[in-house]
Amino acid sequence: MTTTMARLLLGVGWVCNVGLALAQPKSDQPSALPLNDLSAFQKPGKNWQIVGDVSANLNQNNVLTSTKGTGVLANLPVKDGNIDLVSNFQHGDVDLDLDFMIAKGSNSGIYLQGRYEIQLLDSWGVKTPRAGDNGGIYERWDDSKPDGQKGYEGHPPRQNASRAPGLWQHLKISFQAPRFDASGKKIENARMLLVELNGVAIHENVELSGPTRGALGNNEVAMGPLRIQGDHGPVALRNIIIKNYDKPRPELMNLKYTVYKGRFDKEPDFSKLPPEAEGSSVLLTANVTRIPNEFLIRYTGTLRVKEPGDYAFNLGAAGGGGMMKINNKVVITPGDRRQNGSVTLPAGDVPFELMYAKLEDWAKPSIGLAVTGPGIREYVISDPSNNNSGDPTDPILVDASSNTVLRSFMDMPGYKNAQGRTLRVVHAVSVGSPDQVHYTYDMDNGALIQVWRGKFLDATPMWHDRGDGSSRPMGMVQRLGMPLPGLTKLASAQAAWPTDTTGSGYRPRGYLLDENDRPTFRYQTYGATVTDAVRVLDNGQGVRRELTVQNPASNLYARLVEGTTIAPLENGMYVVDGKAYYVRIDDAGGATPTVRKVGERQELIVPVKGKLSYSILF
């Protein structure tokens, strides 16, 4: 199942054609692990500290430096006695969400239940990741096997979505613990339901037959501690958010159905309708009638609630609509095919009623009902085999096995246009590289607007059916700020940057491809001729941009990046957006860069006298 399909229902793997998606009940929010001290962990070693911040040097192996404070959990190795960190709490099914920073050349890992490792590693620039790379599910191990075969069942990430050392990375894990019967026998393996690294899905629904190498024990358990590897190298973590799913699911019982023929767009008076069919069912399903269209199925029964609290429901009614009542309250009202509702339920048996009206003949009849509640991960309570994925669109993916140029619209999430909608760059040129580092150039502004690592483009929105002209990056994306003119004249280094090219005489002149099919962009502005070449750095560690300006106007500036923060480092380096990426000034022609405040954000600008080159490292 791929991320281009409808949303994966965790723990079930069932997809409804209406795309079931629930908001979490208000009473069931995740909790943050307190990092004011180390009291959440068992006997922490001297290598583990609570600090205020950390940083790493791109040229120094296995070193993190820290500042005093709280909020960051850091493994800062000492001469002797570096040990792993084990939590006081135990978990079963869990969602884990955290930021981490790895030092250059360093190695660590997160063990779910102390037994199943997601690797943390400096994998910056790795082209083909393996199970031992950043985000990989580490191998199992058997010393009795021959050399070269001892490691087995490792799972590499789908693509390398890693950031550079010294940058904060984001990891999200949805884990399902192994299941055991009443006698303690394992009846279902553990699973990594979903793992995302820096916003990219790198694992989905991966079954784990047993503990990975280096586990706390080879026995499997229903509950186990969180463990962080501390004996291999420096690592830091922050914003550790945990959501446990340890409560029993509600059950549907005593289901009875009645089928009525006809078109229904509201609840009818059932006392006046003759049924077409009726009976009992152990499952909530549409497979109780052979009528293909224009019918209504009414279910009544009992919902057994074992855990009181707030519950959220999503009803998928293929080719029609539905209505649901629980405990004699309307939870989902009649409407279109995407119907959500929530209700507070007591423990015990409560009345349940659901109606499904099939109106359109293009869809196969199906009912999908998903539920989440206090300590209960979202699951499908209806018949999982009665799904209708409709006619799913085959994704149209553009590979960059060689240097590739694609023009399209490009949406910029997080940035708004004048109408308050997501900003769309309408003359975007995306350039893909076999080194798996790519970028998008805005031809309307002469600006580099985003870079990303991993797979190239999903062109499905542009080329499927009528299309909307847009494509989407498929890897770990780093946007470089609001798309604005790349060059402009300023009265001073503190003057406002214009929002468009009005008055500059800006004229795009297309691009020329070199012998390796890499474009160099050309344009005119303020009477000057500009060539703009962006090239992927060796080892895929970022991109280098070189601007050459013939006959530059006086007081001409280049706007390199924009972010929440831009902090200077050594040797012309800057770290941007709270340590999300680096900018390195390679050659400013003797000009001095300026970091300036613009509202709540900052910009890095440089006077341009002829040539300017800089690199984005991420």
From TrEMBL:
PA14 domain residues: 250-385
SMART domains: PA14
Keyword Signal belongs to the record: yes
Biased composition (Basic and acidic residues): 139-156
Keywords: Signal
Keyword Nucleotide-binding: no
Pfam families membership: 3keto-disac_hyd, PA14
Protein name: PA14 domain-containing protein
Organism encoding this protein: Larkinella arboricola
